Amino acid sequence: MKIHHDKHHQGYVNKLNNALQNHEELMEKPVEELLANLPALPDEVRDGVRKFGGGHYNHSLFWRFMSPDGGGEPEGFLKEEIDGMFGSFEEFQAEFNEAAGGVFGSGWAWLVVNEEGGLEVVQTANQDSPISDKKVPILGLDVWEHAYYVKYRNKRGSYIDAWWNVVNWDEVADRFDEAR
Asked: Which residues in the chain show pLDDT less than 70?
């Protein structure tokens, strides 16, 4: 994870800053605002913001979604909503695992709050972010090879299974409360 954080994530930050270097007014905006309004961006920076801003934003969330004290299941209202939307935590976990394992190539699996306020599991390709589709990401798993290859080699499923042991449900619940 240190290589993932210090090299890959930092690379997205550096490339985003580079892409925006001639647009000081955009450099002052939060990355969430840029990603939520991609069509409004100048053509010459849109793709860079989508790729590198998405990489920075997604990874910034990813680190917060994990904790050495994580794992288990959510509690309280988040647990009730997951059970209500998916049938049970186990059914949610199975759907999330299927989404994560089913990403073709590189991308992400997400639990999001959609525009209607409901929960749904979605995939995004590469560094695309649900925020660009008007969805609020409350949990996300990076399934690019750089996230797991050093430890798990080509065993994405083992990585996904192990990841559940570090999910920071307090952070997920806080993001869910903010999104409602």
From this structure: 1-4, 146-147, 149-152
Question: CA 70, 147, 172: angle at the middle one, nearest 5?
Answer: 35
User: What is the pLDDT of the chain when averaged over all its residues?
Assistant: 94
2-64 and 76-179 agree in CATH topology: no
Q: What is the DSSP letter of 82?
A: H
* Measured distance CA(122)–CA(131) in Å, rounded: 12
Give the residue extent of every domain in the chain.
2-64, 76-179
- With tokens 């996300």, the residue in question is 140
128: left (phi over 0), alpha (psi -120 to 50) or beta: beta
Judge residue 180's burial from the number of C-beta atoms within 10 Å of its C-beta, 0-12 exposed, 13-18 middle, 19 or more buried: exposed
Assigned CATH class of 76-179 = alpha beta
* DSSP one-letter string for 117-177: S-EEEEEEETT--GGGGT-EEEEEEE-SHHHHHHHHTT-HHHHHHHHTTSB-HHHHHHHHH
Helix (H, G, I), strand (E, B) or coil at 109: strand
Helix (H) or strand (E) holding 113: strand 107-113
